[in-house]
């Protein structure tokens, strides 16, 4: 089963609640990109925005934490209404972060940057709910899909199936109706799309087109 995760990074922040309501019928998860200006060279949003959005929707909130110190904020995200948090494999000691997420009732995600070997994530497969293979360098929406990452997607798909673990395989960055089928063929099952959805004239139709392209 493929799942679509619109990324609100490309939505109009001045009317975020309406933007989310517009895509909600086609959203299996809502992807929330959290950036700290250190781990990535951009600043975005944090728990107060998640809390406000939680009052507007029951959607699953998939919070992608591109920050140096996610451990300082996990409790705030859980309290704000996040369902899952994804931390980056490039950080030290992700294992203790997983423990903290479990304690808080958060689903556990692990993200891998394009230049980071998949080996950084494979030992954790039995302990996570979602593996995010970045298909752009994190930090900004609207970048071009890095097709070379498909080699890692294929290996990850194989390892997830071989290990019979319940791990969603997510791709994030440059996902559109053109690139989503490429990632689906490689084995991805969860598709984050920001600009392809929210920069479209009709975001709901754009999400539908991506779903149709991978069906
Ligand atoms: C990039 C973010 C992505 C971003 C994707 O650092 O992690 O989630 O929103 O945007 P698009 O779909 O425009 O590449
Ligand atoms: Zn993201």
Name of the CATH architecture? Alpha-Beta Barrel
H/E order of the elements? EHEHEHEHEEHEHEHH
**Which residues sit in consecutive blocks of at least 5 with pLDDT less than 50?**
none
Strands in their spatial order, largest beta sheet: 1-8-7-6-5-4-3-2
Q: Per the principal axes of the C-alpha atoms, what is the gross shape?
A: globular
List cofactors, ions and other ligands.
Answer: D-xylitol-5-phosphate, zinc ion
* Structural class determined from secondary elements: alpha/beta
CATH fold naming = TIM Barrel
State the end-to-end CA separation.
9 Å
Helical region count?
A: 8
- Relative helix content: 25-40%
Please give the largest β-sheet: 8 strands, parallel
CATH superfamily: Aldolase class I
Rg estimate, integer Å: 16 Å
Strand content: 15-25%
What's the pLDDT, averaged over the residues? 98
């Amino acid at each position: 089963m493929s799942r679509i995760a619109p990324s609100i990074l490309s939505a109009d922040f001045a009317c975020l609640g309406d933007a989310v309501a517009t895509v909600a019928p086609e959203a299996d998860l809502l992807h929330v990109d959290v950036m700290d200006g250190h781990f990535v060279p951009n600043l975005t949003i944090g728990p107060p925005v998640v809390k406000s959005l939680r009052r507007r929707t029951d959607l699953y909130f998939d919070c992608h934490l591109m920050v140096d110190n996610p451990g300082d904020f996990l409790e705030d995200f859980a309290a704000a209404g996040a369902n899952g948090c994804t931390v980056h494999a490039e950080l030290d000691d992700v294992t203790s972060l997983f423990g903290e997420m479990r304690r808080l009732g958060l689903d556990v995600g692990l993200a891998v940057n394009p230049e980071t070997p998949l080996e950084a994530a494979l030992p954790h497969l039995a302990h996570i709910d979602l593996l995010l293979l970045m298909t752009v360098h994190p930090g900004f929406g609207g970048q071009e899909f890095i097709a070379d990452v498909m080699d890692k997607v294929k290996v990850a798909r194989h390892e997830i199936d071989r290990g019979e673990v319940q791990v969603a395989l997510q791709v994030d960055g440059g996902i559109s109706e053109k690139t989503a089928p490429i990632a689906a063929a490689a084995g991805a099952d969860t598709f984050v799309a920001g600009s392809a959805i929210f920069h479209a004239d009709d975001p709901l139709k754009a999400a539908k087109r991506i779903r149709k392209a991978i069906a």
